[in-house]
Design brief:
It holds the Pfam family NYN_YacP. The protein is α/β, with parallel strands linked by helices and 123 residues long. The chain has one domain. It is 41% helix and 13% strand. The chain has 5 helices and 4 strands; from the N terminus they run H-H-E-E-H-E-H-E-H. Helix 4 links the parallel strand 3 and strand 4.
């Protein structure tokens, strides 16, 4: 919930709605970018969230740092980790993905980028 949790706007009251909003924001932003966009959630969204633009992934198991572990796995499984930028403000996750070859970008800065580019939509 790195990007979602940057702004305390009550997202915790309805996590699923926050996940949907983030996915829609990423879709809008991705339409102006080149490359693939993947969002990784802590668990499978229920009901499912679909997107033709953003790849939606989730940790295969629950628990502390499970989404972080999935992000690190995805970076390691990618043929070209240097082509990946992971958005996070989690220092431990940033260290892990950097060690695997990916770049990082701060979550708060990315949230502002989404909002300034018109990618953000309030419900």
């Amino acid at each position: 919930m790195n990007v979602i949790g940057v702004r305390p706007d009550g997202w915790w009251k309805d996590r699923h709605a926050a996940m949907v909003r983030l996915t829609r924001c990423l879709e809008n932003w991705a339409a102006t970018q080149s490359g693939e966009v993947t969002v990784v959630f802590e668990k499978s969204p229920s009901p499912p969230i679909a997107s033709d633009v953003v790849t939606i992934a989730w940790a295969p198991r629950g628990g502390a740092n499970s989404a972080d572990d999935e992000i690190v796995r995805l970076v390691g499984a990618h043929g070209r980790p240097p082509d990946i930028t992971v958005v996070t403000s989690d220092v431990a996750l940033a260290q892990r993905v950097t060690a695997a070859g990916a770049a990082t970008f701060p979550a708060a800065r990315f949230r502002r980028l989404l909002e300034s580019s018109g990618g953000h939509q309030d419900p």
